[in-house]
Amino acid sequence: MKKILALLMALVMALGLVGCGGGDTTETTSGDGGDSAQTASGTELKFSTGGDQGTYYGFGTVLAQYVTSNSDTKVTAVVSNGSQDNVEQMDMNTAQLGFVQSDVMSYAYNGERLFEGVPVTNFSTVAALYMEQVQIVTLDPNIKSVADLKGKNVSIGSSGSGVYYNALDILGAYDLTEEDINPTFQSFGDSVDALQDGKIDAAFVVAGAPTTAVTSLATSRDVYLISLDEEHIAKLKETSPYYTESTIAADVYGTAEDCTTVAVGAIVIARDDVSQQDVYNFISTIYENIDSLSHDKAKELDLEFAASVTNIPYHPGAAQYFAEKGIEVPTK
């Protein structure tokens, strides 16, 4: 009799545990090292952007919030160290979407420079959003040319960003190397603080203008942007064809004159294993509602430019949206 009672008690307890474990509408799954979550309302994607005073983070946050509010795909923008870091986070599946400079995207895919010997190819293009300018910022009016940076204290970008190689490219066009300056490796925000405190003479900032960090500096100090001349831009493009000549108008930061510089593309990429529907939701929600996006960079969004990447294949979800618009893009 005691054995029968014990068995009945065990059966009751087991049924109680089953009841406590059911009825949850949220299911969390993880991939190879990541934590992408599936919920009742759609997929949650982490969008790796850049420093909190850069355009990547500012615009990325606007895009993430808008897509989350207007589709079944949930996107969260997170701060990062920039392009290289974003590629590496997606490779580890700690992020599923990311901003990347067009040049760094090529380095990753082809195993060059930042990714020498260790190519990363498990991502695809979503869209080219806008051009981001190489901004060489100083508070010293006597620094008028890249050549004047020789012997100066210059911030050439934080670890994990593409700014470092942009700086080397620009310096190289003027026959200078890293050894010809006193380099520091700082984020946009830290570079601005160092300029303000007189610890450095100039800083390379590669981001869509206006950039929050530079705008903040210009509210309290006279900011100068160093222009590149046509001869050295031509020399730069001979070895680095992904650069495009660009102008930063004087009214952007209140400078005395327009600045002539070069720019690279700001691209959104996605892991290949992000679902076609989620990428379609992301790109279609953005490009069908450009006028509703509350950021200056939204004014630069253009469908033809979005589909202009030719060296890295597009994600199937992006290709689906472009096909609906009569545009064919390369896919894997």
Can I get a quick summary?
The chain is of the alpha/beta class. It has helices at 2-21, 55-70, 83-91, 102-110, 163-173, 188-196, 212-218, 230-239, 250-253, 276-287, 303-306, 316-324, and strands at 27-28, 37-39, 42-48, 74-78, 97-101, 123-138, 153-155, 182-184, 202-207, 224-225, 244-248, 259-271.
Description:
With 332 residues, the protein is of the alpha/beta class. Helix content is 36%, strand content 21%. It contains twelve helices and twelve strands. The chain has helices spanning 2-21, 55-70, 83-91, 102-110, 163-173, 188-196, 212-218, 230-239, 250-253, 276-287, 303-306, 316-324; strands spanning 27-28, 37-39, 42-48, 74-78, 97-101, 123-138, 153-155, 182-184, 202-207, 224-225, 244-248, 259-271. Strands 1, 2, 3, 4, 5, 6, 7, 8, 9, 10, 11 and 12 form a twelve-stranded mixed beta sheet that branches. Strand 7, helix 5 and strand 8 form a beta-alpha-beta unit. Helix 2 (55-70) crosses helix 10 (276-287), helix 5 (163-173) packs across helix 8 (230-239) and helix 10 (276-287) crosses helix 12. The radius of gyration is 24 Å and the shape is globular.
Which descriptors apply to this entry?
332 residues, alpha/beta, twelve-stranded mixed beta sheet, 12 helices, 12 strands, 36% helix, globular, disordered N terminus
List the helices and strands and how they pair.
Layout: H1 2-21, E1 27-28, E2 37-39, E3 42-48, H2 55-70, E4 74-78, H3 83-91, E5 97-101, H4 102-110, E6 123-138, E7 153-155, H5 163-173, E8 182-184, H6 188-196, E9 202-207, H7 212-218, E10 224-225, H8 230-239, E11 244-248, H9 250-253, E12 259-271, H10 276-287, H11 303-306, H12 316-324
Parallel strand pairs: 3-4, 3-5, 7-8, 7-9
Antiparallel strand pairs: 1-2, 2-3, 5-12, 6-9, 6-10, 6-12, 11-12
Helix pairs in contact: 2-10, 5-8, 10-12
